[in-house]
Design brief:
Strand content: 15-25%
Radius of gyration: 14 Å
Largest sheet: 3 strands, antiparallel
Order of helices and strands: EEEEEH
Number of helices: 1
């Protein structure tokens, strides 16, 4: 999956980048609102899309660093041209 800039964000959200200049992590463009709700968007590669179409699953790895897991949601959003 390739992280991409969020296409739609809340009115009071600001655009931010996580892991900017932080190897070995890839920069992740995001939007965060005043309550700390973070939105990121990802595009599957052609290979990943083919795998998904053939029954593969999506895995989500969360680095909690032994802290409590925060609630999260995974959804499919329409692509905006």
């Amino acid at each position: 999956m390739v992280p991409v800039a969020p296409t739609e964000i809340h009115v009071d959200a600001e655009r931010i980048t996580f892991a900017k200049d932080q190897p070995p992590y890839a920069p992740i463009h995001a939007a965060m609102d005043k309550d700390g709700l973070v939105l990121t968007e990802w595009e599957p590669t052609a290979e990943e899309l083919a795998l998904l179409m053939n029954g593969s699953r999506i895995r989500i790895w969360v680095f909690t660093f032994r802290k409590p897991l925060q609630p999260l949601t995974v959804e499919v959003a329409p692509k905006i041209p």
